[in-house]
Amino acid sequence: MKKLLLSVIALSSLTSAMAQCSDIFISEYVEGTNNNKALELYNPTNHAIALNNNYRMVRYNNGTTAAAGEANPQAMISLGTHVMQPYTTWVIVIDRRDATQTSGTNIVVDPGLIAIADTFLCSDYNVSYTMNFNGNDAVSLQKTTDGGSTWNYIDIFGMMGDAAMVSSASWSDQAPYDGSVGTWWTLNHTLIRKSTVTGGVTVNPSPEFIVTAEYDSLPVNTWTNLHIHTCVCNTGINEIDNSVTISIYPNPSNSDFTTISANEPIEMVEVYNVLGEMVMNKRSSNISNKMIIENRSLIKGVYFVKAHFAKNKVKTIKLSIQ
To answer: Which phi and psi (to 5°) does residue 211 adopt?
Structure first.
């Protein structure tokens, strides 16, 4: 059996190890009704990352130990050969697309979620049950650098091991965080990684998994934020200002113009490509809460729109040109 390299550090106060903007991590978790299951990965680096079967997802049913989960071939699945460009996301959805299935475990994924997916991972239990996760399952993202002889944790969602067995269907938001008290978070919710998180959890959380430490919660069957992730790896900590909200319409866009709206007057807008090069800037002549930019000169791809406000406030949002 191929061994797994466990990145265990013998410090009792250490509950996780964070890699600073150095490798992909889970940026969004969707645990919805029926088969509405999705994971979003984010590349926080300034270079492209080729998955090339060097990455895999592993599910630990009901928080089973790593040894039990990784010894079962059905618990893991390769992520394929996709290339993630800098500061972009990749959305994985469970492969339940058969529209003839209207009931039971094979019920079709919501069409809105299907439309957002970049790839679909196998849902056949005889092949892989990785994406059949529920609120009390742990999931790890792993990477190999030697062709699969050893695997390293680069992110862990949940907690593995006997102590990780939640007392109900979900981890919760109050101590002891096992679902016995408080609000269930990992069941029937969408969870978005906080913008200040710069890398994955590489050590199994101990003594508990505190989901609220790194994730924000949205209602069940919410996936409007998929493909839009804000991270200080790209924007800078001074650009995460919760007092400012910004939106772009349409996004993704295949039109010649894009409207940027905010809750404060916009003084200037800059547009950057994934290499960090400024490709457009526009200063408002009549400052208002909306600005229209002409994007007909932008080629298909992902861009970052940086809006400037009074008192040196800055906010960045992703724009996809199709």
So the answer is: -60, -35
Q: Per residue of the chain (322 residues), what is the pLDDT tens digit?
A: 333 433 332 222 233 334 589 999 999 999 999 899 999 999 999 899 998 889 999 999 888 899 888 999 999 999 988 899 888 899 999 988 776 666 667 788 989 999 889 999 887 788 888 999 999 999 999 999 998 899 999 999 999 986 577 877 999 999 999 999 999 999 999 999 998 899 999 999 988 899 999 999 999 999 988 888 888 888 665 566 667 888 899 988 888 999 999 999 998 898 888 767 788 888 887 888 999 999 888 988 888 888 888 877 888 888 888 8
Alpha carbon separation from 168 to 78, 171, 187 (Å, rounded): 30, 8, 10
Domains of the chain in sequence order: 25-232 (no CATH), 241-321 (2.60.40.1220)
Q: How many C-beta neighbours within 10 Å does residue 108 have?
A: 16
* DSSP secondary structure of 57-125: EEEEGGG--HHHHHT-GGGEEE-TT-EEPTT-EEEEEES---TT--SGGGPPPPHHHHHH-SEEE---T
Spatial distance between the Cα atoms of 283 and 54, rounded to a whole number of angstroms: 44
Which structure tokens are listed for 160?
A: 């593995």
Task: Give the side-chain half-sphere CA count within 13 A for 149.
Answer: 3
pTM above 0.85, yes or no: no
